[in-house]
Amino acid sequence: MNRFFIAICLCFTYLMACKSTTKQQADSLYSRHLQQKIDLQIISTTIPDKKNEMNLLFFNNINLLDDLKAKKIIDSLFKSKQIQPIILVAFTASNSNNGLEEIDGTEGKQYKKLNDFVADELYMYVKKKTAIRKFNSVGIYGKDKAAIGAYDIGWNNDEKIQMVGMQDPNFKLSATLTYSSVLKTIELSRKRPTLKIWLATNTLDSNSMRFTTMLNTKLKREATTLLTSNNSFANFLIWAFPASR
Prior knowledge:
alpha/beta, eight-stranded mixed sheet, 40% helix, globular
């Protein structure tokens, strides 16, 4: 009888250990800057007793969550104590180019709208929803064309965002623009933000090399360049929110 009871307890303990502590839910927010309803996906680990130990990651392109297996990766890394507690908020600002319109000189206006949405509306919405006054750290992540938007948001809001993850940034944003005018503006800027940059790319073409050179001359902290792999999102999370920090 005792052995049977012990076996039941061990089985229960195992099942509890396997149970996911990371939750995912859909949400939405109407943006006055973008004049549209923005669909959100929120992935969150267990919120710690000290709420200011929670970290926030904006994820620029809600459609990539499943491809990257974001929830599964976050849950695995958090359970294995490789990352700190985190809440990921994924969004997509429009159906094309992740809110970045590259037509007839309107590019800069669209970037500013996306900046204002994340910094003014989405950031405050998350703080209010979670009842967290101040996050331990804040980052933003993007892939392909969304990586350029993520960097632009981080650059213009470094008082709120400390790190940017860029996976396979696509600098060819349109048929006529082979290098984003936003990055040209950054090159001419006197601003020297304290951003930390995680740049993962398979090929360092001329635009990537130009961008990396710009980072090393503009940023106060050296940019980090990594090669992409199947688990590059996991590598970013460990780099950005290491549990040992």
